[in-house]
Amino acid sequence: MDSNLAMRRSQLYRFLADAVLYPTDDWTLDLPILQSILLALNLDHVPPIEFTAGLEALQVAHRRAFGVTGSLCYETEYGLPHEFRQAQELADIAGFYRAFGFTFEGQIHERPDFLASELEFMHILTLKEAYAIEAERTDQAELCVEAERKFLQDHLGRWIGLFAERFAPADAEDSPYRNLAQWLVTFINADADRVGARPERPRLTEIWPTPLGPEYSCDGCAAAELAEAFDATE
After folding, report:
1. In three state form, how does the secondary structure of 11-25 look?
2. How far apart are CA 64 and CA 23, in angstroms?
3. According to the model, what pLDDT value does residue 222 have?
4. DSSP classification of residue 154
């Protein structure tokens, strides 16, 4: 086990977790610092992100890439058979978080399957792994690696490719978020291989959006009844 490698992985996970959020700081200014990390992880071949237009332009690019709702960024929106399965998956992700003391106590409150949340959790796991190795607590380090393997195999590693596929066509070619999506999928796929995870990666054409639960349906609501009445008058 290599504590330096685990720390480099942790640093990149943290950068990516921050970068997918709506920007309040210009994260592109940190790109030169990342070159040594990419080199250490054998990821220096990823497409460069070249963007010097400043924070306001970065915010515009984020809104254009992710839209208002950011629905591309939630794992369980990608093709689960019914709303009950969605609840099960969310509970499973939350179980990982609880097991390692990962909580949402900041100003931003998000679902467990939010992309930034899953990336932040991997940042915490790899950081714990690095500290355990430095403290010569091999059993704790191995436990962290096993959790990383399972989380990448069952969750983050399964859907990040679908995220990149859906993301790229909607984004402008000059947007930094197009290449950021490639950073995400390249790094996470490589990290899954590094820890021995074998996630099943379905193709985008093989999935349907997760159906809404009854509580989110418009059936029976006033707007739906008005629409039906309007249609009947035509």
Report:
1. HHHHHHHHHCCCCCC
2. 13
3. 43
4. I
